[in-house]
Write a structure and sequence with these properties.
Shape: elongated
Order of helices and strands: HHHH
Distance between the termini: 65 Å
Structural class: mainly alpha
Number of strands: 0
Radius of gyration: 24 Å
Length: 94
């Protein structure tokens, strides 16, 4: 059958497209993991925390997944006086 052969060809093509566009499961994982990132940020010697000293943290009132306060506390505890001695301005976004 012409239609049967065409149907099989279209189905195989769709399968190949789906496989090409679907990432492998390991590619969907965060790196570093969220736990590793928080551990790194907690240390003043961490790779990520060293570049976060002068980071502007914006926090929104209606954001249930916001972690700005946690990030601020983590960086302040990792750097202590060094973080608070920089010029900072607070802005509230509504």
């Amino acid at each position: 059958d012409v239609f049967s052969g065409m149907f099989i060809g279209v189905a195989n093509g769709a399968k190949q497209i789906g496989e090409a566009l679907t990432p492998a499961a390991e590619d969907l994982e965060f790196f570093p993991t969220p736990e590793d990132l928080w551990d790194d940020l907690s240390s003043s010697h961490g790779v990520y925390s060293r570049s976060c000293l002068k980071t502007l943290i914006v926090q929104f009132d209606e954001d249930p997944i916001d972690q700005g306060a946690r990030l601020a506390r983590t960086l302040l505890s990792a750097y202590g006086d060094e973080a608070t001695s920089t010029n900072s301005t607070e802005a509230k976004v509504e």
